[in-house]
Amino acid sequence: MVDFREPSRPVLFLDIDNCLYPPNLGIDRLMKDRIHAYGRELGLDSSSVEKTCTTYMRDYGLTIRGLMKHHDIDPAGFNEKVDGSIPIEDIIRPNPLLRTMIETSTARVWGFTNAGHDHAWRVLKCLGVADLFEGVTFCDYLEPDFPCKPEPRSYAKAMSEAGVDDPSLCFFADDSLVNVQVALGLGWTAVHVSAQRAGCDAGINISDKGVVECCHISTILELPQALPLLFRQPS
What we know:
The chain has 10 helices and 9 strands. By secondary structure, it is of the alpha/beta class. Strand 4, helix 9 and strand 5 form a beta-alpha-beta unit. Helix 2 packs across helix 3. The two termini are 25 Å apart.
């Protein structure tokens, strides 16, 4: 394992859910269904629980943060009934193409997710790439007022945990355009991974002011084309 404190080596931060695997696997829907069921268990009105959870997601970045703030929930219990109950091992299969892509990266590879620790590593293991990640910056549900994307302090946490202090060495791929835009504003190079293009062009674009603008790719496997300097090219 490379020393992750190596100061001059770029870090490739990869989001996990709906980024390393396609959204059509339905895990996001399973997650929402379980969150809504959990809300009903708390006593939220069945007719408005979906709206309430959506509002919490909008206002706090994650629904669990709103539930913790307004309903004093047990975060460990939430994790067990929501994240922990999703049958990831029955849905996600190893992806040899993803593994090969990551293996060709010349950067250090680090996960950066709004999921909890256990969920993040379960997904990486199911994809067959967990051993290629030096670490993962995740949301610690047990930490009061824990940071999450797109809050700038979440990106600062990721940099600290990965041992990098120069934003120009930070490269990022995420399926959330907002998360990508915040990263760009912090001086990172960022790529939007989505089947639907929304305000991003293909390839890395440099503005007249020398600022990296948004880059769009359809799937994570196109990342070497978007960031060729971070990947060994086929001989």
